[in-house]
Design brief:
4 strands, 107 residues, 20% strand, single chain, 3 helices, alpha+beta, globular
Length: 107
């Protein structure tokens, strides 16, 4: 599965920002996490939403910097669960690290 690449044809205007979720490169996952990822990937591909882009935080940071972003932050599933899901009465949480990652970047 190939890693992603962010294309940028123009300068990013001052004050611009992005925030998005992404998946870690399967090659960087432990064997157990990779099995969980492959099962989820098969499920979402079956409904027409295949995973296409994968990054390590280091690769993604380099891509975002090359696109003109200077302030870059990452959150993994543990951090996102603590922020958004800890007090849910239904127990809903993001899946293990590698499957619930978020990046934000600002010019």
């Amino acid at each position: 599965m190939p890693s992603g690449h962010i294309e940028s044809d123009c300068a990013t205007p001052a004050g611009s920002g992005v925030c998005f979720d992404y998946a870690l490169s399967p090659e960087s996952m432990s064997p157990l996490r990779r099995k969980v990822f492959e099962a989820l990937a098969a499920r979402v591909a079956a409904i027409g939403e295949p995973f296409r882009l994968f990054f390590t935080p280091e690769e993604l940071e380099a891509e975002l910097r090359s696109a003109g972003f200077h302030t870059i932050g990452f959150a993994d599933s543990d951090q996102l669960n603590a922020l958004y899901f800890d007090h849910r009465s239904d127990g809903l949480k993001l899946p293990p690290e590698g499957l619930g990652m978020m990046a934000s970047a600002w010019v």
